[in-house]
Design brief:
globular; mainly alpha
């Protein structure tokens, strides 16, 4: 399932850093600033958010990630962006 793949892939700081670079734009810039305010690199910060989200995600949360990823040409990036946006970038 794509949601499990997002959780697995984006829990790795190096892989999620590359995903953030692919997302790019204002989203990635804002996320990098938030990570810096938390004395963290963007990859490490995103990985921590994804891990915490995965640990606490209800079936409704998982369904929301799936809906965000479904139909996207880049489902991993769409799901990641949904998770990070929902988390408000904060841990």
């Amino acid at each position: 399932m794509v949601v499990d793949e997002i959780f697995r892939t984006c829990s790795n700081p190096h892989l999620v850093r590359a995903a953030l670079t692919s997302i790019g734009g204002d989203f990635a810039d804002s996320f990098a600033r938030e990570a810096s305010r938390n004395d963290n690199s963007p990859g490490a910060h995103a990985a921590l958010i994804v891990k915490k989200f995965a640990d606490k995600a209800s079936s409704d949360d998982r369904a929301d990630v799936w809906k965000a990823a479904r139909g996207s040409q880049q489902p991993i990036l769409a799901g990641l962006r949904h998770i990070l946006s929902r988390a408000g970038f904060l841990i």
